[in-house]
């Protein structure tokens, strides 16, 4: 399929799609409303197909890249769902390195997130990307099925699963003990919650378009935060000023970046909402943040 850009679609349709992927409207309701944008012989179903991820576009670092070593690992999570399985990626050369937890969107551990983990490995970090859908069989290979599974999760237990994964990763013998976390959408919100729960045990955090914690919870954060937002994602980005103020009151080192003209999900290079310029700049800031706070 020809790769489309956000500018190829009306913003109203992109906003409608955002509602669908976040479970605020059903597939049927999306298709009914999308019919208003179906012109030139297109159907609403065809529009949905164009907007859905194409994971062949996401591979920046091949799974068999000789620079990395990757494996699937299962981590105990006694306060969560018992265990959580994930994708562990390290540089191929043996070394003790800082570690980064990678938290996926609300679809589970899909190929895009696996690739993000590999990108961190080639940047000389140990990366671990857990799958919140582990207790339901894992990411099913289809995003619509994944969303249906995701809606069945106990989010309290899922947070405990990610906490268990973070602590396991931090304590690995090949880790320096310095831990960062990066997450996208749902994962951005989880990263913010990890910062609240882990305090000084988390050394750096980069939430991409993630829901912000309450002001009372922000007071518990110790990890330096570098938050990434999309200008057109007003639902999430609108919470940044209060988050910024609360982080300032808590004396937490932080930055916030809002990318002009970008949509929610702009870093995900498998959908038309991908914004190459914004994603490239945000990723550079991510690596710079981790290099500053996790090394040395």
Short précis:
The chain has helices at 11-21, 27-34, 44-51, 111-122, 143-150, 155-170, 186-198, 215-218, 234-237, 240-249, 276-294; strands spanning 68-77, 82-91, 97-103, 126-130, 175-184, 204-208, 225-230, 254-259. With 296 residues, the chain is an alpha/beta fold.
SSE layout:
Layout: H1 11-21, H2 27-34, H3 44-51, E1 68-77, E2 82-91, E3 97-103, H4 111-122, E4 126-130, H5 143-150, H6 155-170, E5 175-184, H7 186-198, E6 204-208, H8 215-218, E7 225-230, H9 234-237, H10 240-249, E8 254-259, H11 276-294
Helix pairs in contact: 1-2, 2-3
The overall number of domains is 2
Poorly predicted runs are none
* Average residue-wise pLDDT: 95
**Widest sheet, order of strands:** 1-2-4-3-5-6-7-8
- Can you count the beta strands? 8
Helix/strand order: HHHEEEHEHHEHEHEHHEH
Ends distance: 45 Å
CATH architecture of the largest domain: 3-Layer(aba) Sandwich
Helix content: 25-40%
Question: How many H/I helical runs?
Answer: 11
Instruction: Assign the structural class, choosing from mainly alpha, mainly beta, alpha/beta, alpha+beta, or little secondary structure.
Output: alpha/beta
Tell me the Rg in angstroms.
Answer: 19 Å
By CATH, the superfamily of the largest domain comes out as Alpha/Beta hydrolase fold, catalytic domain
Largest sheet: 8 strands, mixed
CATH topology description of the largest domain: Rossmann fold
Q: Based on CA inertia axes, which overall geometry fits? A: globular
Strand content: 15-25%
């Amino acid at each position: 399929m020809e790769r489309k850009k956000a500018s190829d679609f009306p913003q109203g349709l992109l906003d409608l799609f955002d509602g669908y992927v976040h479970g605020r409207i059903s597939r049927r309701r999306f298709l009914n409303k999308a019919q208003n944008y179906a012109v030139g012989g297109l159907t609403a179903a065809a529009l949905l197909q164009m907007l859905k991820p194409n994971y062949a576009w996401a591979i920046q670092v091949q799974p068999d890249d000789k620079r990395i070593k990757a494996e699937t690992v299962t981590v105990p999570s006694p306060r969560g769902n018992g265990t959580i399985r994930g994708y562990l990626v390290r540089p191929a050369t043996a070394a003790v390195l800082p570690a980064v937890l990678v938290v996926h969107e609300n679809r589970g551990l899909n190929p895009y997130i696996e690739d993000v983990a590999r990108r961190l490995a080639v940047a000389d970090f140990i990366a671990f990307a857990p799958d919140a859908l582990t207790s339901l069989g894992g990411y099913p290979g289809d995003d619509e099925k994944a969303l249906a599974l995701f809606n069945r999760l106990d989010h309290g237990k899922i947070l405990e699963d990610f906490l268990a994964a973070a602590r396991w990763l931090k304590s690995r013998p090949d880790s320096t003990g310095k831990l960062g976390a990066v997450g996208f959408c749902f994962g951005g919100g989880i990263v913010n919650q990890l910062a609240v729960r882990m305090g000084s045990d988390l050394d750096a955090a980069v939430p991409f378009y993630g829901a912000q914690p309450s002001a009372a919870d922000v007071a518990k954060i110790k990890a330096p935060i570098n938050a990434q937002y999309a200008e057109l994602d007003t639902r999430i980005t609108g919470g940044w000023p209060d988050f910024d103020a609360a982080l300032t009151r808590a004396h937490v080192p932080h930055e916030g970046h809002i990318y002009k003209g970008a949509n929610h999900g702009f870093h995900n290079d498998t959908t038309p909402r991908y914004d190459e310029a914004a994603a490239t700049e945000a990723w550079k800031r991510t690596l710079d943040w981790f290099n500053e706070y996790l090394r040395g």
